[in-house]
Amino acid sequence: MALSDRFLWGGAVAANQLEGGWNEGGKGPSVIDMMTGGSSTKMRRITDGVIEGEYYPNHEAVDFYHEYKGDIALMAEMGFKCFRTNIAWTRIFPNGDELEPNEEGLKFYDDMFDELLKYGIEPVITLSHFEMPYHLAKEYGGWINRKVIDFFVRFAVTVMERYKDKVKYWMTFNEINNQSNTSADIFGWTDSGVLFSQYENKKKAMYQAAHHEMVAGAMVVKKGHEINPDFKIGCMCSFVPFYPYSCNPDDIMTATECMHERFYFGDVQIRGHYPAFAKKEWKREGTKPEMLPGDEEILAEGKCDYLGFSYYMTNAVKADVKKDTAESLDGSSPYSIANPYVKASDWGWQIDPVGLRYALVTLYERYEIPLFIVENGFGAIDILKEDKTCDDDYRIEYLRAHISEMKKAVEIDGVDLMGYTPWGCIDLVSFTTGELKKRYGFIYVDKNDDGTGSGKRYRKKSFGWYKNVIRTNGEEL
Ligand code: BG6
Predict the structure, then answer these.
(1) Model pTM?
(2) What's 8-471's CATH class?
């Protein structure tokens, strides 16, 4: 058997894309509550406050806030061993700078975790998934401001103490490395509450915000282990590996240099110090973040226990290509070029199951700590038939191919893999486009891009398929 019998099969979501109830239970507005709907050809806009007449898809999302009991029952029916979501920071500290938490928000997660545990489903909890309090972005300038470290640590310690007997698996910041694309504002906004387009030296601003986040993350890892020594606390990166387009040595070195960007954040959070290439880049480009004495020690003392990562696609790069990435939502670099050996989804995301094995091997050989695939999946347009079934065979095919490569990484390459939680196990709002029609789920939610629809849930064909995958611990695909 390839996978251990403790392998964490499950599914992943994010509070802001699922819960709705954006202003209920004392919740404050978050940065993502200021993002309008968009599409693959139309970027989501970030508005200055909530503007009447605009549509903000995350405000209602798919109403998990009220529907969570039924949704969790469906996940239990599939046999989930774990469920990855996050605690919305703004349910606990609505503005972010309060001294006392909002009890109603804490109670919501108490009840939700109890519901999961009732079925033996382990909560896997990210602390920050694209939804820092809007107030911290607006009034403090987001993570550029060092004061945000204290606010985040207060939030993290509050929830870790409160749920110390309910939650064992934690992650600090979701896809903290998205912001390395400083050309498209949605990444800096959702990672750090910063619009890098407003800064003359965008990269320097980004490294500054990221430094504060990583210092805060390291503090939280250390404090978390004091709160409960059994906690497993990971970091989380998006991993879109860069392939050299050809064996031309120039393409190889372009890919190597592009990969630096992919490793920057993991290196600090896992090895506890900045890599050599980062220091050279700061010097060369004048982008060194300001650090306080003691920061290096904090980073060294707060190394993560595991690496959670998302994997959706790879990207090929060629030395003599140079394009603008301002409108790119597919993890591409200025050197990216279509890979003739792989197909792409309707949203242009390249489908590359072998790339998942490549990702696992690359990350494991670099860091030698347990890995957790906390996102992977196929965003597609699903058709709900009249009899309320949905034949999403393309999704089954995608997941089957990826799981099969994942097993090779464990069996052949010896990767220590904790689990697999496909993204958007229940349909939810797309992060990059704000659409509902970019669906990932095993569970169909009857809701449309403009917010219309009954909100009812239906099992897709992949629901039964995934249930059997879990039942057989990945033996039957
Ligand atoms: C990751 C995020 O970027 O990919 C999720 O962690 C996101 O929040 C997922 O939803 C898929 O992206 P999208 O744009 O298809 O929703």
Answers:
(1) 0.97
(2) alpha beta
